[in-house]
């Protein structure tokens, strides 16, 4: 039995959709991929590729897309109206739609979206204010416009359900923590699941045999200690704000900092809605901090290419915070580390950042081959280590859409 699986990845300023041909229990095959970027900086831009080849590149969508739901409608129309993609000739051809949901609370595996599941996820919106509400808006549109398809929620948090109690627990009143579900959850888990499987394959091991320190570095950035193929610790916490700084996020700061920053931090932000309540503090730390605050740009490529003092400060700060987590996780894994893995847009593309990080970590036995590090990544995962080093250094082209489609294809529960 074959069907079409759509993988939907809604970010704070973009929506990406990948279409796969899938058979029950088998690895899916990608047919096409399209995305709308720039939802917060009009006009948005549409890109579309089929069979790995560009079909539409950098096409302005004339301001029609103003939110994630609008963007999804444009992407669905692009797929269906492509005469060269007969497998997706209409809405009825789509059997499964898997949605990246950042915060899944206590869910430990992907879930078929029912009325009860949807209500539970809605209650988690405030814990991931840049993502969950946007994703659920697309879920609503799919339930309404593609009634024959089965919707599946794939969570960024569920990979981290294996983090042990002494690491995931905050030192606060336990009763309040339990009743309000206050603990470390962790995110980017769909990416880390992909990274674990692909890195293990390159190392010639089973996924449950590898110990990794993985870095998902993009506009949102995190680190993860992976022990025996399972999450042992990660830098993000109750929400995606904790840990490493990002394009607009502060990362971990002194909790009292925000009260010294502004006097109205406890009040609701003007950006709050009836579905989503964002305090001024959350707005400052999630949307007005990070590289944007330090440099005026959210483009890390611009930052890495400049020696201007503000850019250099942001670059050095990011390297320092990354190395701090790697060092901590190295000790937590007792030095039993198969590889340090760079992934995400920055991890994959910035050779300068990889070099700066690994140079600082040479004392732990990591080493980089300079020539290999400068080359463009060609495979899914590549070894960029220097010869005869104690621990490998890898680069992985992570693929969250594929990981979601694979999970759905292999689980009988999601098939009609």
TrEMBL record:
<feature type="binding site">
    <location>
        <position position="16"/>
    </location>
    <ligand>
        <name>ATP</name>
    </ligand>
</feature>
<comment type="similarity">
    <text>Belongs to the acetokinase family.</text>
</comment>
<comment type="pathway">
    <text>Metabolic intermediate biosynthesis; acetyl-CoA biosynthesis; acetyl-CoA from acetate: step 1/2.</text>
</comment>
<dbReference type="InterPro" id="IPR000890">
    <property type="entry name" value="Aliphatic_acid_kin_short-chain"/>
</dbReference>
<dbReference type="GO" id="GO:0006083">
    <property type="term" value="P:acetate metabolic process"/>
</dbReference>
<keyword id="KW-0067">ATP-binding</keyword>
<dbReference type="GO" id="GO:0006085">
    <property type="term" value="P:acetyl-CoA biosynthetic process"/>
</dbReference>
<feature type="binding site">
    <location>
        <position position="100"/>
    </location>
    <ligand>
        <name>substrate</name>
    </ligand>
</feature>
<feature type="binding site">
    <location>
        <position position="400"/>
    </location>
    <ligand>
        <name>Mg(2+)</name>
    </ligand>
</feature>
<protein>
    <recommendedName>
        <fullName>Probable acetate kinase</fullName>
        <ecNumber>2.7.2.1</ecNumber>
    </recommendedName>
</protein>
<feature type="site" description="Transition state stabilizer">
    <location>
        <position position="249"/>
    </location>
</feature>
<dbReference type="InterPro" id="IPR004372">
    <property type="entry name" value="Ac/propionate_kinase"/>
</dbReference>
<dbReference type="InterPro" id="IPR043129">
    <property type="entry name" value="ATPase_NBD"/>
</dbReference>
<dbReference type="GO" id="GO:0008776">
    <property type="term" value="F:acetate kinase activity"/>
</dbReference>
<dbReference type="InterPro" id="IPR023865">
    <property type="entry name" value="Aliphatic_acid_kinase_CS"/>
</dbReference>
<dbReference type="GO" id="GO:0000287">
    <property type="term" value="F:magnesium ion binding"/>
</dbReference>
<feature type="binding site">
    <location>
        <position position="9"/>
    </location>
    <ligand>
        <name>Mg(2+)</name>
    </ligand>
</feature>
<feature type="site" description="Transition state stabilizer">
    <location>
        <position position="188"/>
    </location>
</feature>
<keyword id="KW-0808">Transferase</keyword>
<feature type="active site" description="Proton donor/acceptor">
    <location>
        <position position="156"/>
    </location>
</feature>
<keyword id="KW-0460">Magnesium</keyword>
<dbReference type="Pfam" id="PF00871">
    <property type="entry name" value="Acetate_kinase"/>
</dbReference>
<feature type="binding site">
    <location>
        <begin position="216"/>
        <end position="220"/>
    </location>
    <ligand>
        <name>ATP</name>
    </ligand>
</feature>
<keyword id="KW-0479">Metal-binding</keyword>
<dbReference type="GO" id="GO:0005524">
    <property type="term" value="F:ATP binding"/>
</dbReference>
<keyword id="KW-0547">Nucleotide-binding</keyword>
<keyword id="KW-0418">Kinase</keyword>
